[in-house]
Structures are given as C-alpha cells and as structure tokens.
Amino acid sequence: MVNVGIVGGTGYSGIELLRLLSSHPQVNIEVITSRSNAGKPVAEEFQNLRDMAELRFSEPEIDSYQNCDLVFFATPNTVAMEQAEALLSAGIKIIDLAADFRIKDIGLWEKWYGATHTCPALVAQAVYGLPELNRDAIRDAVLVANPGCYPVSVILALLPLLDQNSINAASIIADCKSGTSGAGRSASVATAFCEVTESVKAYAVDGHRHLPEIRQVLQAVNKQAELVFTPHLMPMVRGIHATVYADARGSGDKVQQVFEDYYSDEPFVDVMPAGSYPETRSVKGANQCRIAVHYLPDRNKYVVLSVIDNLVKGAAGQAIQNMNLMCGLEESMGLNALGIMP
Amino acid sequence: MVNVGIVGGTGYSGIELLRLLSSHPQVNIEVITSRSNAGKPVAEEFQNLRDMAELRFSEPEIDSYQNCDLVFFATPNTVAMEQAEALLSAGIKIIDLAADFRIKDIGLWEKWYGATHTCPALVAQAVYGLPELNRDAIRDAVLVANPGCYPVSVILALLPLLDQNSINAASIIADCKSGTSGAGRSASVATAFCEVTESVKAYAVDGHRHLPEIRQVLQAVNKQAELVFTPHLMPMVRGIHATVYADARGSGDKVQQVFEDYYSDEPFVDVMPAGSYPETRSVKGANQCRIAVHYLPDRNKYVVLSVIDNLVKGAAGQAIQNMNLMCGLEESMGLNALGIMP
Amino acid sequence: MVNVGIVGGTGYSGIELLRLLSSHPQVNIEVITSRSNAGKPVAEEFQNLRDMAELRFSEPEIDSYQNCDLVFFATPNTVAMEQAEALLSAGIKIIDLAADFRIKDIGLWEKWYGATHTCPALVAQAVYGLPELNRDAIRDAVLVANPGCYPVSVILALLPLLDQNSINAASIIADCKSGTSGAGRSASVATAFCEVTESVKAYAVDGHRHLPEIRQVLQAVNKQAELVFTPHLMPMVRGIHATVYADARGSGDKVQQVFEDYYSDEPFVDVMPAGSYPETRSVKGANQCRIAVHYLPDRNKYVVLSVIDNLVKGAAGQAIQNMNLMCGLEESMGLNALGIMP
Amino acid sequence: MVNVGIVGGTGYSGIELLRLLSSHPQVNIEVITSRSNAGKPVAEEFQNLRDMAELRFSEPEIDSYQNCDLVFFATPNTVAMEQAEALLSAGIKIIDLAADFRIKDIGLWEKWYGATHTCPALVAQAVYGLPELNRDAIRDAVLVANPGCYPVSVILALLPLLDQNSINAASIIADCKSGTSGAGRSASVATAFCEVTESVKAYAVDGHRHLPEIRQVLQAVNKQAELVFTPHLMPMVRGIHATVYADARGSGDKVQQVFEDYYSDEPFVDVMPAGSYPETRSVKGANQCRIAVHYLPDRNKYVVLSVIDNLVKGAAGQAIQNMNLMCGLEESMGLNALGIMP
User: What is the ipTM of this complex?
Assistant: First the structure.
C-alpha cells in the first residue's frame, strides 16, 4: 500500500483525486489538509464523498504528512514550493498539480506567475509529469510537476508530428475549448452559472500561463516550435477540446499510421480511426486522451483534434498515473474506469 | 415621456430593466446609480447593452434623481427603505423590486429579513404591485412593492380557485422550480456553473422569505389559506415553474372555465387549453404568466401549473407594468415582446 | 465468473450496463445483441466504450445466449416477455429493465402499456427487484422485474414512514423531477437539445405508467396508500429528485431516527443528517439513493427529498445489484464507485 | 405596410422570423405555410407564439402568396428554387434563407448540395444578402440569397483586413463554434439533449457546405483568399463564435482603427475596444455582430473574434434587414432589440 497525503483538498482537482483514489486498490489516504476546513469531515463539503465518512480535513502542517510516502499538492500556485524541501528531506515524494515546478526558466516563471520562486534548485530537479514523454524519468523522480490541462491536450496532439518532423514547427495554432471546471472552485461572478451557460468566449488571446509551458515542452522536441494558443471558455463542466493546426512538410497521406504507431503502446492515448471526431464527453471521468488526425491536401495542413477530461488526464488522473510510476505500481492501476456517457 | 431612475443597476433585475426599458416608447432613462461603479459606462459592465453607449453609472445620491418622475429600486433588501421618504417628499414615485414594502406586518418582516424597519408608516401606504389583484390601487399609488418572483407564480395559479371558493384553502402545496438567476448576481461558490449545472436540489424547505409574502396575499383573499412552499434550484438561468396542489371542494369539472373567465381580460396571464403543459422557455424574456389547470378526479385534487420568467413577470417586466399603470400609460406598453424560443 | 448477455444494448440503460459491468470483477460479457447493429463493434456506436474493442453486437437469437448464466433485457417494453420462457427453460436467469414483469394485475398492465401480455404466468413468478424491499426473494429468483426509475426514488422515500405507520397513507404527493435520459435514446424533436435545455415542464399529470407501479408497491405495505404523482422534465441528463409530501400521524419529531434505523444496514441508501438537501449530481454515475427527511410542524407534514441517478440506482446499477444477489455474489460488488462531481 | 409570406414556418429560422416580425411596425404576416401542419394554429406548435392566436399554417400553394409583397423561404435547401420563378413572375420578391441561390458556380453548388439546380438563370440574378457588402444591390434586388450563419460570422471578421490588404489572404483559418440550433429542428439522435450537452466536438473538418460560400465571397474581395474552416458543435442553443486567424502583412498596430473605420456606419456590426472578448450571449436574440480584433506581434498574426446569434444576424434578423432594404423601409426597423442577458 502507498500512504498518500493531499494538500488542499477543497478544489476540483482535490475532490477528483479523492474520487479516483477511493477505488485505487493500493492506496491509503493517510491525510488530507485544508487550513480553512480543518476538523471538518470531507463528506460535509462534498456530498458525493459521503461514503468516506471517516475522512476529515487536517491542518496543513509538515507533521501531518509524516506517515506519507507521497504527497499531492492540489493547491493554488506558490503553495507547493514553500513546503517541498521539508517533505523531500523527510523522504516524502511530491506531485504538484499546480505550476510551481513546470517552467525550467525561473525568470520566465516569475514573469508569468508574478511571484519570486523560493526553491529554484528543486525546479531543476523536478520531472515534467507527462508519461508519454518522460516515463522513465518519472519512475525515478521524487518531485514531479504535473502538467497543465491545456498543455496535455495540445502536446499529445503534436508529439507524433514533431517526432517525425512532419510539420513546419513554427506554424502551430492551438485553438482550445475548455469546460469551466478549469477555472477552479471559487466564488466569482465570472464563473457563475448565469454568466457561463449558453455562451462561448475566448480569453487570454494575448498570453495565457500555459503558453510558455507548451512552448518549453515542444521546443525540447523541436527547437523551431512556436505556436499561437487561444483558450476559449465553454458552457460545460469538464473537458478540453484542442483543435491544433500545423502546415505539413511533404505529403500527409501517412499521418494516420504515424499516430497509430507513435501511441501503439500507450494505455491512455486512444488514436481514433481516420475521419473520426472525438467528443469531450467520451472521456468524462476517464484518464484518457482521445485523438483524431485529419489531413487537408488542398491546404497542406494537419488538423489534429484531441480531447481530455481536464480534471482527470488533465489533472488528478494524470497525477495518479505519475504516482503509480513513482511508486512502482502498474501504471494504469485504479485508472481504468470508462468515460461516463451520456 | 416618463423620466425614470434606476438604483442599483448591476444586478440581474437592474440589467433586465435596462433591456426592457430600452424599447419602451415613453420612457427616458434619466439616471442609473451604483456606488461601486460610479462613473463607469453601463456598457462596460454588460456587453449586451453596448448600444446604450452614453449611459453611465452615477453615485446613488438623492440629487441624482431630481429630474425623475419615478425611481426603480433594483437593490438588495433594506436599501429602498432608507431613501423612500426623501424621494416621495420630492414628488418622485417609487417601485421597489426588493422586499422592503411587501410584508404589512412589521414584526413579521423584521423576523424574516433580520433587520429593523426604518419606515413602517410607508409600509402601510405601499401597494402590493400585482395588477391582476390590485390594478386600481396601483394606478393611484406613489409607492409600489413589486412582488417576489415565487409569489407571482404561486398566487396567479391560485387566485381563480380562491375567488370561487373551489378549494380547501388550507391544503395548498406549492412545489416551485426556479432558475438560478433568482439567486442574484454575486460571487458565490453555491451559484457557480460547476455547482449548479446538471443538478437539482430543494432548499429552504423549513421556510423561505417568500412564504410569509404568499401567505399574506392568499389570506387576504381567503382567511383559511395555508400552504407548504418548497423551492428548488434548477440548472437553468431563467424561469419559474410552480406546481400547485390543492384539494377540490365539490367537482372540478368546470375548472377550466373558471380560469378562462377569471383571466379573460388580463393581458399578461395566458390560460392554456385543458390538458396543456406550460414550458418555462415559452416565456423567456416575456412579461407573461402561462397557466394550465388539471383536475384529478380520483384524488379530487387540482394541479395547477404556472410558469413565468422570474426576471420579467417575476421582477423587471412586472415593475414596468406597474410603472405604466402609475404613470397613466397603456398597461402593456413596451411589454409585448414574445418569449424567445428556442 | 458470471457469464451475462445483454439484449438491446443501444439505449442509455444498455450502454450504462456496459460501462458498469466493465469494472465488475466477476462478470464476463458473453454477448450483446441488437438487431439493427448486428456485426458492428459496440465501440463504433459509443465512443466511451472504445476500450472494449473486441465487443460486437450480435443478432438477438436465443442461441446467442446459450453460454449465459443471466441475461439483461435493456429493451423497449414488450420485448422481454416474448423471449423469457425460452431463456428460463434453458436455465438462464433474466433481469428485465423494462416494464413487462412489474405489474402483477395483468389487466392493469395491458391498460397502461397498450398491449396484450403474452406470459401472465411468468408475471406471477417474477420478483420486483428492489433489494431494500425484497432482498431474500431476489436471491432465489430466476426472473426479476427491475423497478422503474421514478418508483425507486419515490418508494425508498416512503418505506420508513409506511413501515412505522407514521403517515396518512392516502395523502401522498410525489412531485418528481427527472433528467432527460429517462426519456431514452431515440430520435425525437421533444428530446432535442434546443427543446429541453433552459426549460422545465410537467408532463403526464393525468397519469404516468409509473403510477400504477408505485401504487402497487406502496399498497403491498399499506393498503390505504394512494398518491398524486407529477413527473417533470429537467434540463439535465441524469438524475431524479423526488419531493414527497405526506400528512404526519402524530408528531414527526423522531422521524430522522426512523429513517436512520430503517436504512442502517443498506449499502446503497444514504440517509443524510437532519436539515440536509440532497443534490442529484452527488449520485451521478453512482448506485446510491440519498435521502433527507424534513418535518414541518406548522403543517404537520413530512417533506422527503430523495435523489438517484436514473440510469444507475434507477436502472443499470440496480440491475447489477440484483444480479449480484441472484448469482450469489457480494451485493455491492462492482458498484462502489462514487458519484462524479462536479 | 409590407405584406409578407413565410414558407416553411416550422423550423427554427421560421419561428424566429415570426417572433421578430411580430414586433415589426410595418409588416403584416399575410400567410405562413407548412404542408405537414396545414390548418393547425401556429400557436399550437410553438408555445411562445400563443399571442398570435389567429395565425394558422396554410398549404404551400402559389395562390396562397397572391397578396404578398415578399416571401421568405425558411425551408430546407432545394425548396425555394422550385417556386421562385412563379413568385417572381407574379411580382413577389423573395428572400431565401436556405442555400439555393448563394453559390454562383452551378457545378460547385450541385457538387456540395447533391442536387440538380432547376433555375440557374435566377442564381445569376440573385443578390447575396449581406448588407455590409452589398447594400445597394440589395435595395434593388427582387431575389436575395440570405447568407449562411457561419459565413456571416467569418466574412464580417475579415472584410476590413481584406479591404485594406492587411493580411496574407491565403493564410486564413476560421475555427468556428456554433450552438445546436444551427443544426435545425428535426428528430435525430445526434442533436438530442443527452448527446449534445456537456460536450464539444468538431465536425466536417474535411469540408462543410459553408466553405465554398465563404470562399466565393472572400475571393470576390481578394482573389488570393483561401481558408481552412473548422466547425464545432457547442452545448448551447444559440450563438456562433468565430475565431479567425490570419498572417499580418506589415505591422498590425493600426488594426483597431481599421476595424472601427470600416464599420463606423454599420448599424449591426459592433467593433469592441482593443483587448475585448465578445461573448455569444451578448447577442442572443439580437441582430448584431460583435467583433474584437487582436494582433499578436510575436507571431505577426491577427486573431479576430466575432459573435452572432445564428438565428438572428445569421438567419431571420438578417433576412428582415434585407427585407427592409428591398422594401424601402429604414434598414434597422424592427431590429433594435438588445441581446437578452443573462
């Protein structure tokens, strides 16, 4: 059994971790912390967790984690970096679902996140937690930076093309549509039901924090990689649909095979048959990325469609996949539930 | 032309007043106030009002209203009672869309609203703004208490039955389903998209502020009237569906005619044919109450179904209907737009 | 391992059976039939089932089921009664998710379902598949009538009160709100997105097929039981919220304890603390009925709130719970997933 | 007064025409036809139109239109072309809301629409009904091809850039998100509530009928114009959000001014301030196209965001704007209602 702790269990990533871990056969939830809810049963905050009657929020003190093998940070940005050294020193592994350890260039991180980084050395040591890219490094890691939700959907759509040098890497446009749970669980007019439902809008066209993250990962594969990234807010809870455009180099006739080969051994990337259209609802609640690639011969462009559940393969499920690797468990353990549809 | 002022134009009732008044041929919006937004163009807060480019929020000072014939309070409870005397003294009529003047029993009001009433004398003078009940009094009124949204849907469903003494007045159950806009425009987790969509729940079963309001109005018609009132939150923006149950006295065979006769001259109450089911979407954006009455001979009960748009016939449209009456305009002026469907 | 067959796997109950059975440790899906889709991979029809790559629809012939221990009918009404005798003769157990075996009074069934029943003898033999009421009989049954979705929500809300003789059994009103998946998966304007979303309506006020079913079950417990049942269509996919009213006999002060005691050993009925409000989303995807009971001393009435996922505890999950009992497995096997929220 | 007829009033464009025309001060709805509903009151089919109690569907015979000045075809494709000559011969003007007269190249039309065109001569004579492009020609036209909904959103986003030769016209990508009402009002599983809600998907990536229409219009302005067009289905009823990408020629610093100047006199195109994000809900029910243009200096690309209500500026409102022009009325008559929000 792996004893885990969860820091900040009152956001949507935290509650999803609890839901998924509740059916993981090799995990014991040792502690879950929340300063504002310390002492309160988790079931009181989240009605769907009423079966976990005994679980209560604790104070987020270092001592709370002493029996943990691994701690998940499902906290706002800048929280994990304050506690990471103490935990690692105590031999406790860390997966940060926020952004503290994702960007290697500290100056760049500080610009986008508007804060001073308190442990740059750990950033260097941290492994970017995308198993499809870094599986072996994750197995050996003690500190994993769980990827952002948009980056997962965009990067997985592009890896086969970049790997085969099939595109002009500077021509990428990622037009992404996200459900509202991506904005987190907080009191704000902007995410109110009456403001979100029955409407669509773009935002952060001039720059979103996930842009430097995507760029860093793509450029590690191909130095020429550049992209326009446009996020849109959708009137739904879960799901990201990335529509990714890129100019083909040479003919695109074989692209279906390229994708199928690249992902043939991946348990959580599903390449659909040629001509398909993935639906976000097909991965609702599931740790899956479903991809279809289209080639437009007239325009010599690829249009790659990829969908994930932003709270699962884009956050909590991804984190558990990383945990399984870091703790020597089977990679897909506890993650085989199908999408819930309708 | 009627010169009007709007106090507190940043909530959903306020924005709906602006939308409806923008196509009223005899109204000039003289001023709209909001302490927190003073100086800001209204169009900046509400994208649908960008055509009203010149309209800006002002400070909510008494002087601001000096050119107004009538002022709407689209404010939280307890705001209107603070300013009512000064406005009335200056010869300015008032329609309060909040609850300050709805409950005649001051002690009862203070119990339910948790505040001390500052102008009990005005409460006595105020007219409850339901034209189907109080049309003549509204014409002569200078201070109108615009009804709550739930009460409109429930009272209009019951008036014909109470008027004809057709029911056991103590047997009423009003099971009401409301869209989320009824909860107002504010930053709260409880009304966030991800908390409201794809779910239904009851609330305030043990007592909602609209209960004493409904009871007061029904008992004025029939002293025996008593009810159970259960509000439910629906995953939609606009609309209330009241499902009202009552025990029939005698046979209910003629009830369709009773409803058709009672409302035959009403411009904004639509009695549907026998066997019909009103849909809330059919009145979206429209100042209509649509009603169908069903009689269950086996159980000797009536089931009355009534729908309104809580922001229109349940708030802003009703207020304009009252304004038309108070200002000697045709009652339906500016209120004839059809529901938007789909 | 239990070898199961599914007849009619292209509706919402069928797909939900597949989803739930896919993580059941003791079930092998031997065959799934669909006349119109015979030969087609299931994954082609349902994108969320793409992991079940090998599963294909077969012709619905009796021979197809020869290796099955148990067959689920997730078909329209009147299909199961045509094949039941042949299967039972072959020693294959049956769970019918439709209504062919729910109503004991054949004349009543024929009136409500507009068909001639072809095997009345089997109706007499069939067990109504509500474990909270009939657990022991289900264990021994070879033919189980899986309950309707509305009946589950209403009956579970009333059993403790009827058992303790706490209510006037003739005073029941069940005001029920259901998600649209209850209407099935078929091409119709009435269930189109643009017709359903952002709206609420009642239907079948004068009589719904689930009314005689509820009445039969309640009257088996208390002969005086009578009810008004009003279904409403909600703008959401999954979930039923039953709001059940009944006149109390004597004081209702102890009612919380009555519910807690009655359901203390039930794995899938969750009695919430006094003053609670169950949300349908809290059971989305979960085999749970969550209940809160309120007592209104002023009106001497109970208001019981109960929620289920109509496709799980109201259909497919319930069916698996019955299968577990019929096949000697642990009752909750494969059914412990938590609700997905948000 | 203009006497109008509506052919095919049972789809979403037809019902929206009725809603909008009901408040048009200079229009008399002379006749509305529907073969399948002949004799039936319109209000029986559409609850929101119950105020139009006297209006009934007639048979779609030529004689029915004899008192009409103008007839709207709100029909499926290929219906208008069958009746157009007879109507025009009788001196009746025509606006076709379907696609029969949009594509000038008959061969191209026949390829995309899978039918033989029956009146190519009228195609040559027809005017494409986008007033922002063809206002004067529309004034003189007797036959107007009302544009497709996607084309309106994409073309209006690009006209200022093409007019100023500010982009590489072959670099256009139009990533479009549409509400479900764009798919029409028909019985189909694909548009069922349970299939559409809480999900996003792309479709017709390899070619949509609106692609040749957009290309024809853009190429009339700039022969080099070429585009990738990707439609997506959104879980909402109304609204299109076009996100249009193009490579800038030269610096894009002045682009805000270019848009403001180009549309300065347009009553129904609203250029938002720099840095804005239009929301589809802001134009719900309104005949508006709201646009914001963003320039990304790092990538030297424009990202133009434009929103319309597909049933209003994308269909029925646009048609009325065209009617006003064709009949010598003020262009904006009957079209000034604001968007309904929330």
Answer: 0.97
